[in-house]
């Protein structure tokens, strides 16, 4: 089966809309849904998408905007390891995660501040850069303007 999809339409607060076109018609088990991926309602984000039979998702991160800094779209929970898309234009808070963290800048720039041997250091992360925080790494993200970041960490981490 061949299909094409288009995301990034207007009319929903997350900036995501979907349209699918099929060469042989639309199967009955494909349906348009408005979904709040897990905690989208808590963050104020609304997402409109197609639910594909394989439960896959295509998310256009540059279109995602939350109603408040660090609002998130839950993408996956893989055995207690979560993957979340965050939008922010404000700094987070100094913290140490419960486990390891992978922080990938998908859009924008972020100054990542961290403490190593008690000394504060920082690095500017550009679009495409990844910061890895090992267990016990104290850090705080300061976006430079609006930024979208993908965070992979243990469920329930700060």
UniProtKB/TrEMBL annotation:
GO molecular function, one term: isomerase activity
Origin superkingdom: Bacteria
Cupin type-2 domain segment(s): 93-152
Cited Pfam families: Cupin_2
Gene3D superfamilies, per the entry: Jelly Rolls
Transmembrane parts of this sequence: none
This protein's UniProt keywords: Isomerase
Protein's recorded name: Mannose-6-phosphate isomerase, cupin superfamily
Organism: Paraburkholderia fungorum
